[in-house]
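User: Quick sanity check before I run a bigger batch. Here is a single chain. Can you write out its predicted 3D structure?
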Amino acid sequence: MPPHSLADEPSRVVHTVWRAESARVVGALTRMTRDVGLAEDIAQDALVAALEQWPTVGVPDNPVAWLMTTAKRRAVDHFRRADTLRRKVAEIEHARGGEEDTMPDIASRIDYIEDDVLRLIFLTCHPVLTPESRAALTLRLVGGLTTAEIARAFLAGESAMGQRISRAKKTLAEAHAEFELPTGPERAERLDDVMAVIYLIFNEGYTATTGADWMRSDLTTEAVRLARMLAALTPDEPEVLGLLALLEIQASRTSARLDAVGRPVLLEAQDRSRWDRSMIRRGLTAPDTAERLAARGVPIGRYFLQAAIAAQHARAQRSEDTDWRRIATLYDVLAEAAPGPIVEVNRAVAHGRAFGPGAGLAILDAVDPTSLRDSPLLPSVRGDLLERAGRRAEAADAFTEAAARTGNAGERVVLEDRAAQNM
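Assistant: Done. Predicted structure follows.
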């Protein structure tokens, strides 16, 4: 980030840097302290220091380095204080015949260079945590989301989500969870959860659940980076390659997803010449490798299938060239491999394009409306299918309902416009 880019708005710089770099700061501190809860507390202290100092003394030339250095100093101070207390206790214990504990070698850990974010994800996907707690804690520590944003993503109350995150950190501490990349069966055990969390981070960036911005490119970029690292770590896993392909292809559309005034542009209306061809090439390479692995008997799953669907869009030069029948077939397979309401809603879209809106509505009618709770997905897709069927008044009602449900300002504008067009 150029030091002068937002120099007149120090508080905004603080929050921008924090959202982009908090995972690396917390990861580095977790490596130093071996306590993810303590690491986040120290990182938050550094954030508070930046909020207090930058408006007065100005934004430093390298804001990220300042934040990291401040956090590390506070970590060292914490352990020095703890060491002083420990030594005093040890003197008493020694007088009683006790033995002195070993102090962690913090200095040797400060400049230890490795990617702490991926380690942090494996830590937050520890099997001692429930699946919901793993995802919530990772979004908090790696995605940099606030408790309120995570609660919205999980359709839960903010207070309950805060308690869940606190309990998760405490559980990791009590389990003495190691801040190391697991190997062998332990890595395999956590791999599905790690992939799920990376995909969650990407989706939150691709279409933010709340806020004025439709996308959060910092999260999509980080998710793609983590997927690439995971693929390098596990090059013989078709599902990891499928996840990487899926994220590369979807992220390739980023610059075409907003128009000149910042309004969202839906897939079929996007200028495909603005898609990032290098990301598409990388994305199309991963499924080819995954297919070769699958031919040798390595199982494939939902990410491989979703990547195959994304590849159909990527290969189509124009929207009207999209092979919707092939996509509908792939969604049928995906519904067998990974059944769920979101898959069914997307399957309805594909069948609606391939075989007519009536076919899509038939699938959508079979989806339990309570399964997606207050998500705008179900009514927005229903509105689209009703619009294509010429049932404009019903479509307007569905789009209005979807607009009322979304917490994202950009998405709300699109849905309100589509409602108005059908009135």
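The first helix runs from residue 10 to 33.

User: Great, the batch can go ahead then.
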